[in-house]
């Protein structure tokens, strides 16, 4: 594993943190979309409407366009809650990370960076963020990180969180 350094958030990390946050939330859209497609109601809706269009008009093209149109609508329905959450977060606590996560006593926001491991899209240093201890988000992140506790970076982030909690 590449060497890494865990430190507190700095203002120059803002764009990278927001990018990781946005990509991390929107990452779940395709899996949710395919999960929705596997549901019987969605299956019935897609093929029922397309079949009804075919039976009503006799046109395969109109039936295919209805099918594709419904796929687009379902994609938008699945994507909307995720993008709405990102928009809400970017206009509330993520607008001013320092004020939201670092102003209270005992609050922390860590950034783990590696020099050798590059982000595939931009070639920047890779960073992982962890919100302040005691918040609901922090608890959820720690629960998810139990699966990565065996990795060096995951255990180091958890150790940093425990030290911060004990010192405050």
TrEMBL record:
One of its GO terms (molecular function) is N-acetyltransferase activity. The chain crosses the membrane at residues 43-76. It comes from Monodelphis domestica. Keywords: Membrane, Transferase, Transmembrane, Transmembrane helix. PANTHER family: GNAT FAMILY N-ACETYLTRANSFERASE (PTHR13947), N-ACETYLTRANSFERASE 8-RELATED (PTHR13947:SF48). This is N-acetyltransferase domain-containing protein.
């Amino acid at each position: 594993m590449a060497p890494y350094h865990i430190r507190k958030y700095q203002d120059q990390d803002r764009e990278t943190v927001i990018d990781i946050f946005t990509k991390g939330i929107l990452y779940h859209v395709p899996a949710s979309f395919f999960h929705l497609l596997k549901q019987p109601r969605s299956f019935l809706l897609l093929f029922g409407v397309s079949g009804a269009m075919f039976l009503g008009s006799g046109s395969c093209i109109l039936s295919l366009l209805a099918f594709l149109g419904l796929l687009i609508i379902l994609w938008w329905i699945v994507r909307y809650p995720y993008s709405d959450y990102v928009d809400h977060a970017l206009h509330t606590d993520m607008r001013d990370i320092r004020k939201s996560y670092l102003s209270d006593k005992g609050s922390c926001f860590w950034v783990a960076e590696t020099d050798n491991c590059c982000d595939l899209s931009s070639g920047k240093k890779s960073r992982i963020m962890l919100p302040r201890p005691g918040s609901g988000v922090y608890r959820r992140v720690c629960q998810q990180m139990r699966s990565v506790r065996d990795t060096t970076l995951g255990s180091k982030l958890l150790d940093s969180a425990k030290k911060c909690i004990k010192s405050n």
